[in-house]
Specification:
single chain, alpha+beta, SH3 type barrels, 20% helix, 41% strand
C-alpha cells in the first residue's frame, strides 16, 4: 500500500521484516538529502516504482553520484532510439504514476533534463583516468 502527499511519500514494505512496516520519505532526493535518510528513501522509491534488481542497482548508482556530486554513464532507450548519455544527477523523484525519474545535466543535449529510470538499460559511474575507482553499486548494495 502506498500513499502520496505533496512533498512526502510512504510505502508499506514487507520484504526484509517479519511484519509490514510503513516507511516515509521525501518525494524527491537531492544532494542535500541526509545520508541517513537516503537508504530509507531509496527503499520507498524501489517499492513504489516496482523495480526489478537491475533497476534497483541503477538507482543505487545514481544515488551514489548524486551524493558525491559525480556523474553516471547511461544507455538510454526512448521511442526506439538508444543513446549513450553522461548525466550529472541533481535530483531523483517519483512522478504521480510512481515512475522513478532522474533529473540532471545531460552532456549529450547540453541541458538539464529528466530521465525515466525504467528506460535506462545500463548505469555506471563516470570515472576519469588516474582517479580512484568510483564506488559501484551491485545487487548486494541495491535496495
Amino acid at each position: 500500500m502506498a500513499t502520496a502527499a505533496h512533498d512526502t511519500i510512504s510505502a508499506t514494505v514487507t520484504a526484509t521484516v517479519l511484519r509490514p512496516v510503513t516507511l516515509e520519505a521525501p518525494r524527491a532526493l537531492t544532494d542535500a538529502t541526509a545520508p541517513d535518510d537516503l537508504r530509507t528513501a531509496l527503499e520507498v522509491f524501489a517499492t513504489l516504482g516496482q523495480m526489478d534488481e537491475v533497476q534497483a542497482v541503477a538507482l543505487a548508482n545514481v544515488a551514489i553520484a548524486l551524493q558525491e556530486n559525480g556523474a553516471v554513464v547511461v544507455t538510454y532507450s526512448h521511442d526506439g532510439v538508444t543513446t549513450g548519455r553522461v548525466i550529472y544527477p541533481t535530483q531523483v523523484f517519483l512522478t504521480k504514476e510512481n515512475a522513478v525519474c532522474v533529473r540532471g545535466f545531460c552532456t549529450f543535449r547540453r541541458e538539464v533534463k529528466s530521465f525515466r529510470l525504467d528506460r535506462m538499460d545500463a548505469v555506471h559511474p563516470l570515472v576519469f583516468p588516474g582517479e580512484d575507482t568510483a564506488p559501484v553499486a551491485d545487487a548486494a548494495d541495491a535496495v
